[in-house]
């Protein structure tokens, strides 16, 4: 490492001179390590380590470096209030699913998480159970009857459930330039028996937005841009781990090649058809599609315990001497 300076202002900072392929990394880490925020210091240190190793391992060319900068500029330029190319990039790189898996581990009975994606909005109407959330006459009607329970099988009442899906053309409402109000989305609340039910559409597979830099990247990688048919759900209640998930239709052509890696076997479902009795009870057409599913939430305490345990195991495997602060690892310097 370069020699340390002696000025009081820069005490602890390295002398940044004559930096080479071999010593730029520890010096960059050192200059970034003057904050009292141990977590920020650790994040920056690992980021710089991996970024520099990437350049060294690939012998990154100037042209490739510039192309990457141009790519990121392009991502920024296409972002708007209703489009986030950076989340999309994180999704197609598998980072979104990885971060969700790390932060929301589940015991075997817990409903697994899936990718949030860029199409959740905060303006969905709060609807009473049984309502229809669709205004698309072209779609195939689907009744969904669901429950939300804890890991012991007890119903959880008063859970806020955000639900959203595309219309029958495979577009979310926000992708229509003439959108004047939300459609194919709503917010419901589980009743005293943990039940919620609503009318939507049989989901269809659809391409993620691919007219921007991320779409171009997929094309260069010879990857398709499709997601298998699904409905999104987000469950929130104080004291419970927020669950962001989706249910996927079995047999979809993209079931095992989702462009954003969101499918898990436990989230693949079969639809049924509504019989006469159910049709009369729920006020829907006999023969329409029926989705039945029981979701299982974990408490915040259960999740944090599991997350801590998995973090300790993973860090031990990496041979790192770490401690957890607020459930996040930082170097253990004591
Ligand atoms: C979605 O399912 O809405 C989605 C997820 C990731 C990227 C694009 C769309
Ligand atoms: Fe989606």
Quick rundown:
With 334 residues, this protein is an alpha+beta fold. It has helices at 24-31, 38-58, 62-78, 85-92, 95-103, 213-220, 276-282, 300-317, and strands at 141-149, 160-164, 185-189, 195-201, 206-207, 226-227, 230-236, 243-249, 268-269, 272-273, 289-296, 322-325, 328-331.
Explain the layout of strands and helices:
Layout: H1 24-31, H2 38-58, H3 62-78, H4 85-92, H5 95-103, E1 141-149, E2 160-164, E3 185-189, E4 195-201, E5 206-207, H6 213-220, E6 226-227, E7 230-236, E8 243-249, E9 268-269, E10 272-273, H7 276-282, E11 289-296, H8 300-317, E12 322-325, E13 328-331
Parallel strand pairs: 1-11, 8-9
Antiparallel strand pairs: 1-4, 2-3, 2-7, 5-6, 7-8, 10-11, 12-13
The chain binds benzoic acid and fe (iii) ion.
Family: Belongs to the intradiol ring-cleavage dioxygenase family.
GO molecular function, one term: catechol 1,2-dioxygenase activity
Cofactor: Fe(3+)
Q: How many structural units, i.e. domains?
A: 2
At the fourth CATH level, what is the homologous superfamily of the largest domain? Aromatic compound dioxygenase
CATH topology of the largest domain: Protocatechuate 3,4-Dioxygenase, subunit A
Instruction: Outline the biggest β-sheet.
Output: 5 strands, mixed
Element order: H for helix, E for strand = HHHHHEEEEEHEEEEEHEHEE
| Spatial gap, N to C terminus | 23 Å
The total count of strands amounts to 13
How much of the polypeptide forms β-strand, as a percent range?
15-25%
The small-molecule ligands in this entry are: benzoic acid, fe (iii) ion
Instruction: Assign a percent range to the helix content.
Output: 25-40%
Would you tell me the structural class of the helices and strands? Answer: alpha+beta
